[in-house]
Design brief:
This protein is mainly α and 106 residues long. It is built from six helices and no strands.
């Protein structure tokens, strides 16, 4: 099921919360992690994420293996990791805030 399908189902069931449905943080994160797919991601938006999961997983596993083996990492690689980490934190904060705003007040 694509994100668009999930979004339509949520709206159909009365949960039209734009901040909860905002995927701009996810798009920024994937573009940062896989810059060679920028054009594809821009063309297909959040629906591209599903098709890039395997490549993201392989990239993470490759980096973990390099860390475990003690391989030297260059400054560019370390900056990329720091950028990805900051984007993950921003996405998590935005998600928590959006969920809190979407929750019904008793």
């Amino acid at each position: 099921m694509t994100f668009t399908s999930v979004k339509m189902t949520m709206i159909k069931n009365g949960l039209n919360k734009p901040k909860l449905l905002d995927q701009s943080h996810l798009i920024n994160l994937i573009t940062t992690a896989l810059p060679h797919h920028t054009a594809y991601i821009q063309k297909h938006g959040e629906d591209a994420a599903h098709y890039l999961l395997d490549e993201l997983e392989q990239s993470i596993l490759r980096e973990l293996r390099a860390m475990i083996s003690g391989a030297d990492r260059d400054d560019a690689n370390l900056k990329l990791v720091a950028d990805i980490h900051s984007r993950v934190e921003a996405m998590q904060q935005a998600t928590v805030q959006a969920a809190a705003e979407a929750a019904p007040i008793n």
